[in-house]
Amino acid sequence: MYLIIALGLALVVWPSIIHHAEPWGLSQGVVKCMLAAFSLLCVAGIRYPLQMLPVLFWELTWKTIWMLIVFLPAWQNGTLNDDIIGTAIECAVVIIIPLAMPWRYVFAHYVKKDSDRWRAAPVAA
Question: What keywords appear on the UniProt entry (predicted)?
């Protein structure tokens, strides 16, 4: 999963970052930089797949929220446009993440495991 994301973003995002001729607007710049950072985190995920699972959680979460809050209402209201359809196609890749997720590990380490303490435990005298 990390490799698919990293390669996809390397083909789509990095060329526009390296070779952009004009300054970007605020939101375009934010999106491009966030996607570039995400691709680098996915490269780290290739080496450390379990430690980088929160990166996949983030991807799954934001794309699911976008599909529910933006795409689904536009589809139901008949107000889909080319931009929404294009983004929905890009977000549809999110269906692969739950298939690739090591759910037993996720349950054991993110649900069942005791949480970390916010403060150090008092030292016994």
Answer: Membrane, Transmembrane, Transmembrane helix
